[in-house]
Amino acid sequence: MPTDQPIIQPYDIDIPQSDLDDLHQRLARTRWPEDAPGGGWNYGVPLTYMRELADYWRTGYDWRKHEAELNAYPQFMTQIGGENVHFLHIRSSEPDALPLLLIHGWPGSIVEFLDLIGPLTRPQDYGRPASDAFHLVIPSLPGYGFSGPTSQAGMDYKRIAGMFVTLMKRLGYERYGTQGGDWGSFISLEIGGRDPGSVVGVHVNMLLTPPPENPKQLAKITPEDREMLDKMKHYAKEQSGYSVQQGTRPQTLSYALTDSPSGQLAWIIEKFYEWTDKTGLPEKAIDRDRLLTNISIYWLTATAGSSARLYYETLHTQDPPLPEGLSSEHAPPLGVAVFPKDVSYPIRAWAEEKYNIRHWTEFDRGGHFAALEEPELLTEDIVEFFRELRT
Questions:
Q1: Active-site residue among 104, 115, 368, 381?
Q2: pLDDT at position 39
Q3: Whole-number Å distance between alpha carbons of 53 and 330
């Protein structure tokens, strides 16, 4: 087990050419199944689309180009609690910029936030005042991507939240904000509860609001809220199989995803099909190369299994599985961005009973991967929320 090293070391991504050659060879040797009846998406990713996408990954996609794009930003590695933490750290030229954590989830990565870096660190280049600037810290979750596989059991999102609080202190930030979707939402909420003296605000683009136990309260919801509940029921019935597998037997799954790039590709691309706001294929919502860069990170770092373990560890913790940290009266303010095609459909009335809601925006487009799908909308919402919290 590695020991803690408070030192922060510069880091560059440098995937060996032999690993890229191996990826291409495995894709070329894929043993394809028969297609499901009808060839549509009801049974999962269709064979015709999978073969075409895998062939493009092998012959058309250029990892080195996107590796260079990532390496254009300052990256670092440190150890916290015996685990590696990789992160981007982009400081604005504005000395009074607000430090901000941007936290991804599954099946995402640091790639999610590339289109937010310029607008948030250099607002004057995008028509905003310099006073809106942020210093950005964008970590790879422990067990994900370049943070590498975790070595310890019990690495649930609450433990990761504690690690990121340590990271911000290690960087010298005593006052900061945090933002995230998916697991990044859970972690951000927990950070706000753990470090309320330093966290000026928490912004999320996914918020779970479980139904209240009181049936009278449930009966008072609006028709719009009832529609939200119906969408959540559809997700639980039709789209949540991945979380059951990752939350119960992630090790069994890891053999297939670590051995077969086509398997890893299908496992993740299905979610980008189901959870984005588009008509047609996933690349109608997100650039195809950006999608493949995200998936390539999982493959090239062999972190399919360790990233899936976050579901297992969270479901098997002794603590309540949902974030409780921002429910106290001393909690930092919460900003919520609601995108219509997300997999969570928060009920505002229920959220306001639990959280210190300061900002709530409902958009007419966008899905679960807001930073990739609608970076301008998400950026604007982040800026507006934190603008009044800076002083």
A1: 368
A2: 79
A3: 49
Q: Give 162's Cβ-side CA count (13 Å radius).
A: 9
Question: Is 182 one of the annotated active-site residues of the chain?
Answer: yes
Cβ-contact 218, 212 below 8 angstroms:
yes
C-alpha separations of 83 from 93, 128, 220, 318 in Å: 31, 38, 47, 22
Three-state SS for 200? strand
Active site residue 242: no
Instruction: For residue 77, list its beta bridge partners.
Output: 9, 86
Instruction: State the pairing for strand pair 83-90/134-139.
Output: antiparallel
Residue 234 has a pLDDT of 85
Q: Which of 182, 289, 342, 381 is catalytic?
A: 182
Portion of the chain with pLDDT greater than 70, in percent? 94
Measured CA to CA, the distance from residue 83 to residue 66 in angstroms comes to 26
| Given the residues 61, 176, 311, 355, the one annotated as active site | 311
Q: Residue 2's pLDDT is what? A: 46
Residues of the chain with pLDDT under 50: 1-2
User: What count of Cα atoms within 13 Å lies in the side-chain half-sphere of residue 57?
Assistant: 32
Closest C-alpha to 331, from 352, 349, 360? 352
pLDDT at residue 322, rounded to an integer: 67
Q: Is 157 a catalytic residue?
A: no
Residue 321: closest CA among 128, 126, 186: 186
CB-CB contact of 343 with 368 (8 Å): yes
- Other beta carbons within 10 angstroms of residue 354's beta carbon come to 18
**Burial of 328 per CB tally in 10 Å (0-12, 13-18, 19+):** exposed
Buried residues in 90-120 as b, exposed as e (16+ CB within 10 A) = bbbebeebbbbbbbbbbbbbbbbbbbbbebb
pLDDT given for residue 380 in this prediction: 98
The pLDDT tens digits of the residues spanning 284-319 come to: 999 999 999 999 999 999 999 999 999 999 999 877
- Helices (H) and strands (E) in the chain — how many of each? 16, 9
